[in-house]
Amino acid sequence: MPYFSTLYITAMHQFIKILLAVSAFCCAAHSYEWYESGNFYQIYPRSFMDSDNDGIGDLQGIKSKLQYLKDLGIDGVWLSPIYKSPDADFGYDISDFRDIHSLFGNLGDFDQLIAECNRIGLKLILDFVPNHSSDEHEWFQKSERNISGYEDYYIWRTPQIDEVSNIPVPINNWMSRFRYSAWKWSEIRQQMYYHMFVYQQPDLNYRNPKVVQEMKDVLKFWMDKGVDGFRVDAIRTLFEKMNPDGSFPGEPRSYDPNCDQYDHCSLINICTRDQPETYDMVYQWRNLMDDFATKNKVGSKVLMLESYADVDLNMIYYGNATTPGAHFPFNFELIKNTNINSTAEDFKSAVDLWLDNMPAGHIANWVLGNHDQHRIASRLGVERGDLLNILIQTLPGAAITYQGEELVMTNVHLSWNDTVDPKACNTNDPVNYEKLSRDPARTPFPWDDSKNAGFSKADSTWLPVGDDYKTVNVKAQEAAANSHLKIFKKLTTIRKESMFRFGNYTGILSNNDNVYSYKRQHENEFAVVVLNFGKSQEVVDVSSLFTSIPSKLKVYTSSLESAIADGEIVDASKVTVKGNIGLVLLNSSTMAKVNLILLIFSISFLIL
Ligand code: GLC
Ligand code: MG
């Protein structure tokens, strides 16, 4: 490149950086941690991008697509487990907490991935799976052989042996989350061990200080590598209730008609979940992470937890000012409390439940789906896809998007033969397996309309690509005049504005409880979000719902099928919203500023 043009580009680069910094400063006098209103994106590594064409996604594949996530407006990327694993539970059974699965690459690829994240300005969060290891982990192999120092790394007990059948009797009635007894006989040790998940995932014994220290060292190992935080897997099951004599009490029956005697839900899980010691362990991890950041003078590390517990229990994870805990336990209320028939009132209640219970000064968060749930658009209706993205992008706190939700992907149907998820396979039920299967949400990500949706050039992929990939893919949605993807990007852009980052929230139902609206306001800046969860068109009088609404508002963006163009001016007292449609409304001055920032970004991309 000629000397002149290099100089020119460098100068322009600096100029744009200054412009961006100035515009960011104007928009946000406050400076606070990136994750407080962080936009998180969950990658399921097996299915994001395959670089070596073996039909399974990998780290180099992810690295090649980071710019896509940056352009999407994502701040932090969370990777489902990438560690060494025999894949009994697709990576959640880890045989070396400090190594990378050979299918995904190696530690060198990981270093490159993190360097690339740093270069383009994305935070990287890893899955931390503390409850169990794989039965192929060295610790388990040693523990099973009673090797000195490792005897108590797992939860071992001596069972009674049935005199007639000569078969060991499970220690008690505890059931695995994936069906059948949670106790497994080891011929080698002549004892049984406890496993909350599949038997290839033995639970670690957190009453052993050596285990506690080992897992802290694992956290440190990855922080040394530069990761920005952790999503903690299955936190609720870390400890099991133990009697003073070391025995384990049985659990009472739930009499749930939907569960048979081999299902975990046939019991009330008062002994295998939510034990008091769990919270303290989370506080210890947070302390370790904060200490690490302080000592190494690096940005603070974020701690988020997977917990489907009731809200009152989840709040304990936040900790308090003197003993901070997780930055947030995931808020699954929008998953647990909603279905295809849910009304505006149901959604508002789910939102309020978290906001009303969360202790002051903490970070709310919103999750619609993940690799364990059927796709949100299939659960709650494709027609509500944009409306739901509008919801989570405009509520206070962090938003977590599962890969493909930005495209409004739906479940992919998988035959019994194609099914690989142990949760489905363990049903041994070729008719009803799909209800429980997690595979429909784990299929390859559709990048374009070429072979295997551009995910891989292999002859076949580990799970099949969805039938609709010719139309539901990134390339098509980027090329379209408007699309779910484009709406998603508009949302992530506006989300960086002060009313969404710091603004208060006032929510209200109207129109016979079909419409859920809220105002987000920070100083003079505000936005109103109108979500019509009903099936029919509603005319919403926004000026009667909130104070200080000007007579005219501008539509910043709306659901794809709204029939309203972005930028359209509407009468605040008569906002017409079709069924299942969401709108983001702004006053004109905010709109002008957002346009200016968009313009600056566009110019900078053009020049660079
Ligand atoms: C969590 C994971 C899930 C996994 C389980 C056991 O719930 O999200 O995918 O099967 O833990 O690790
Ligand atoms: Mg456990």
Helix content range:
25-40%
CATH superfamily of the largest domain: Glycosidases
CATH topology value of the largest domain: TIM Barrel
Q: β content, as a range? A: 15-25%
- Helix and strand content put the structural class at alpha/beta
Strand count, sense and barrel status of the largest sheet are: 8 strands, parallel
* Shape summary: globular
Total count of domains: 3
Number of strands: 21
Distance between the termini: 14 Å
- State the CATH architecture of the largest domain: Alpha-Beta Barrel
Number of helices: 19
Quick check: average pLDDT? 93
Compact summary:
This protein has 608 residues and is an alpha/beta fold.
Describe the 3D structure.
- This protein is α/β, with parallel strands linked by helices.
- The chain folds into three domains: 37-129 and 331-486, Alpha-Beta Barrel (TIM Barrel); 132-203 and 241-274, Oligo-1,6-glucosidase, Domain 2 (Oligo-1,6-glucosidase, domain 2); 504-607, Sandwich (Immunoglobulin-like), CATH 2.60.40.1180.
- Helices cover 31% and strands 15% of the residues.
- It has helices at 3-27, 59-64, 66-72, 107-120, 138-144, 209-224, 277-296, 311-317, 333-336, 344-357, 376-380, 385-394, 422-425, 433-436, 474-479, 484-494, 498-501, 542-545, 588-607, and strands at residues 39-43, 76-79, 83-84, 96-100, 123-128, 156-157, 183-186, 191-194, 229-232, 302-305, 328-329, 365-367, 398-402, 504-510, 515-522, 525-532, 538-540, 552-558, 569-571, 575-577, 582-586.
- The strands form five sheets. The chain has an eight-stranded parallel sheet with strand order 11-10-9-5-2-1-13-12. The protein has a six-stranded antiparallel sheet with strand order 14-15-16-21-18-19.
- Helix 1 packs antiparallel against helix 19 and helix 12 packs parallel to helix 16 (484-494).
- The longest helix has 25 residues, at 3-27.
- The model is unreliable at 19-30 (pLDDT under 50).
- Alpha-D-glucopyranose binds at residues 89, 92, 129, 197, 233-234, 306, 371-372.
